[in-house]
Amino acid sequence: MDAATAELPNGLAAATVDQPGARMALAAALGHPAHAYLFAGPAGSGKRAAARAFVAQLIAQGAPDPGSAERRVMAEPSPHPDLAWLRPAGSQHLVEDVRGRVIEAVPYRPFEGERRVFVIEEADAMAEESQNALLKTLEEPPPFAHLILVSSQPSALLDTVRSRCQQISFIALAPDAISDRLADSYPDADTSALRAAARLAGGDLDRAGLLLTERGRELRSQAERLAKAIRSGAFDDAPWAGLLAAAVARGEEVGATARAEVEHLAHLASDAGDRRAVERLRREAEEAGKRATRRGRTDALDAGLALLGSWIRDLAAVADGAPDLILTADRAQELGADAAGLDSRRARRAAELVMDTRRRLGVNVSEELAVEALCFRLEFLLRRQ
Questions:
Q1: Quick one: CATH architecture of 3-172?
Q2: How many Cβ atoms from other residues are within 10 Å of residue 79's Cβ?
């Protein structure tokens, strides 16, 4: 542990252990926090965890009971009244959410301590209308308010939004760093499975962890089954349906977890005799579950398509005589057989089509139709002659 890490509270140090640049910036920020930050970097690089740990320190400073404030901020979802944490409703932040929960709420003084913090996760999912509405708040917030935008695609934010924030930059995690993290969380996992998950995750720790779960293994199995069906042209049983079904199942799993978390908070509020909080949380539980289900399904489908794209890129590597470059190293023998007779140029074009479909899933296209259309285009490029 270096000097910069030693200066940070334990939670923030742990959240930034593989992000030296962000760690140094946040160590400096704790002494004189700015009014607005942009936590920017690839998906799964630890931005969200670092943001929560940073917020916990901001709110704990000057709180009547700093330890209690920090624990409540770190809970997810957080019951702390001085933290507003926004996630997109579906694929986009609702304008009314940004206005009601941030812009109109910022002027009100803290309920407990000296600071209020507003976090907009996946800030790039804000429509231009929402971003423009937020500009004045970003420029002139009251002294007790801090805003944090978290984004994997900061280029999707308006220049005027980015310029009003101090940027904290995160980098994609290296496969070795992901493997080390996974080994701590999954001590019983097979070494080859850990390595494969780390390499296939594209620097995304959360996705790597998903690939080690039963649901993640099912996504991977369906993606590989689909890739082989594309090569053989065996479309009679709509092989993409398995991938879609696995994504739906993952979405339901995520939604159930979200509902349970909010219902737990309602139970705690009930024990404390806070009837108004109980009523509000019980109303929010079902809606939170629906939003989480949609997002969980979309994220899982994106993960499945990423696995499909990785398989196709690995086929190109094998066809080019570069098997050492494959990501799916634990399937080398199967890849070798599947790559027989393949034109690597067509495989690279096919991988680009997968990436294009993944991008379009973020703009409210029909997931089923998009995946089905992709499969027919891939079959045209990759089917054995």
A1: 3-Layer(aba) Sandwich (3.40)
A2: 16
Q: What is the pLDDT of residues 38-83, one digit of tens each?
A: 999 998 899 999 999 999 999 999 899 999 999 999 988 788 999 9
Q: Residue 346 corresponds to which tokens in the numbers above?
A: 């067509």
Map residue 41 onto helix, strand or coil. Answer: coil
Instruction: Report the alpha-carbon distance of residue 297 to residue 96 in Å, rounded.
Output: 24
Lowest-confidence region among 10-14, 88-92, 241-245: 88-92
User: What is the sign, positive or negative, of the torsion defined by CA atoms of 157, 163, 164, 170?
Assistant: positive
Beta bridge mates, 83: 117
Tokens at 313, concatenated = 């890129």
Distance in angstroms (rounded) separating the CA atoms of residues 261 and 254: 11
CB atoms inside a 10 Å sphere around CB 333: 8
Delimiting residues of CATH 3.40.50.300 domain(s) in the chain: 3-172
Partners of 121 in the β-ladder = 150
Q: Count of CB atoms within 10 A of residue 258's CB?
A: 23
For 35, the token pair is 């009014």
Q: What token pair was written down for 84?
A: 């507003």
223/334 Cα distance (integer angstroms): 14
Record the pTM: 0.73
Nearest 5°: CA angle at 231, between 229 and 232? 65
